[in-house]
Amino acid sequence: MAGQIQLEQVINGLNLDLSWEYAAMVQYIQHASMLTGPEYVAVISELQEHAREEHNHAVILSDLIQYLGGVPTVEVATRLTSLNNVEMLRQDLQAEYDAIRRYLQRIEQLEALHLYDSAQKIRNIAATEQEHAIDLEKALGIQKVRPGTAYPFTLSP
Ligand SMILES: [Fe+2]
Ligand SMILES: [Fe+2]
User: Per residue in 104-113, pLDDT tens?
Assistant: First the structure.
């Protein structure tokens, strides 16, 4: 029974992840349209690519939830926007940090159930989120040469 409860917990977690993937897709499409200025031309293309990848993640998660015996959510989590270029990119980066943190937890949960194949799918998604975070850190000019400090997962104000 403990395994069944753990499985339900991970399915609930994956549904939360799915609602955030839908939100990320919507947010990136909107931010790509709203970013403006010559220095953001390349970033706009990046964000459009991110939106397509978040869509792919949503499809993978939806199929995985169904495979594990759950019902994929149609809920969309909170979307953020701004009229300020930098603020939009910071919103996107914080969302990526949050996604990575959730996916690392999900990998642990799935592996605890010996669902290594499902965990591998989440690992692949997490690796793409890391690429998204790197893209955004570079676009924001964030310098991370801080030896000895833990990976923050939270943007300082
Ligand atoms: Fe994603
Ligand atoms: Fe992402």
Answer: 999 999 999 9
**Each residue of 55-78: pLDDT tens digit?**
999 999 999 999 999 999 999 999
Ligand 2 mean position, distance from CA 86 (Å): 17
Distance 1 CA to ligand 1 centre (A): 31
Specify the pTM. 0.93
CA 100 – ligand 1 centroid, Å: 9
CATH class label, 2-140: mainly alpha
Tokens 């996107």 belong to which residue?
Answer: 92
Residue 103 has pLDDT above 60, yes or no: yes
Distance from residue 132's CA to the centre of ligand 2 (Å): 5
Annotated domain spans of the chain? 2-140
Closest C-alpha to 121, from 14, 19, 23: 14
User: Residue 153, by phi and psi: left (phi above 0), alpha (psi -120 to 50) or beta?
Assistant: left
Q: What is the pLDDT of residue 113?
A: 97
Going from the Cα of 82 to the center of ligand 1, the distance in angstroms, rounded, reads 21
Q: pLDDT value at position 155?
A: 78
Which ligand gives the minimal distance to the CA of 54? Answer: 1
